[in-house]
Model the fold of this input.
Amino acid sequence: MVKNPFSVYKSPKMIVMMILGLYSALPFIMVFSTLSFWLSDIGLNVKTVAMFSLVRLPFSFKFLWAPLIDRGKIPFLTDKLGRRKSWGLLCQFLIMCSLIGLVATKPLQNPSMTAVLAICVAFFSASQDIVLDAFRIEYFDKSEQGAASATYVFGYRIGMLIAGAGALLMADHLGWTAVYQIIGLSFLIVMLIFFKVKEPEYTPTEKISFKNAVVEPLADFFKKPGWLLILLFLLTYKLCETTLGTVTPKLYLELGFTKTQIAAVVKVWGIVATLLGGFLGGALIVRVGIIKSLIICGMLQGISNLPFAVLSLNEQSFLWLNISIISDNMASGMATSAFVAYMSSLCNKSYTGTQYALLSSVMALPRDVLSASSGFLVQAMGWALFFVLTAFLSLPSLLILYFLNRKMKKYN
Done:
């Protein structure tokens, strides 16, 4: 009898993965779209709001300190708790403190201090991601990796819902200060859970050195055929999605939607569409493979940006708001499933933390740098032309993937 493929999800370890995914998403969203909503709500202009996307640069450069987290020890804590648990708990504690400190700043009077605290949240959150990505790969057998990734992503989407729609709803009733304080203090929950889980097994390494922490993981990656094309592909695949991510909150508010309306449509239905897209993306990978899935999902990403152009020309059109959000998030969910599967397939398990941090940092770089210019593009082009431009940004990655696939076939 064939084993039920869904039985793997019954493991308590999968519940842990879902919770860890949730708490990976919370701080990221709090300095991404929710921060944009907060800053827009208090009256900052679109240029300043867009420039705040730069505070997320630690996610793009986390590979720089990933070797330390991957191989290094924290005095006393690592010997008592283990490598992954000690670093994870430290990062979670610092995220909690930074979120509470962030909302105590005054963005209108002193935006620089707000930016500093937001960078702290991003830095400690990116560091936590290094730990959790390595923990996920080491915590499960090879046969469970697909289910573990899917469960982690599911938890991540729930975290997006809480930090997105949940934060907007709470802000309408409790105010922004309470929102950041509540989500910050909730990290006590994940700290307790992470303290209780079993440290994953790993082979102890020799004393950390520049060679074994940095040179060997990077040298292993750069031995791959077509490594330069791989990096270019990672840089460009999410361009069409990430370029518009920072400024869309400003569009919704300009069109006259309330925060509660935005929470209901953008956050709730958007997350539902993303989850559905994630399941569809996973099924597509099984059906046609990773490369073809990347091509199909990449095309859908570009097409799904076009309804935003129509939305921008129709004041308070709930029809086009729903069409725009559902299509965009479903395409994003599908593309993310294919993209994460592709990045995971590139990693050598001997260098999990460092290599995955490198790949995810490269992927995040255009999101954090180019999205900072989106406010200037909106002012120069207008909303409609801006969204048409972002749709065409899906094409460079597909062209790179075509040549990368041809090159890889020569080595197979």
About this structure: The CA atoms of residues 285 and 293 lie 6 Å apart.
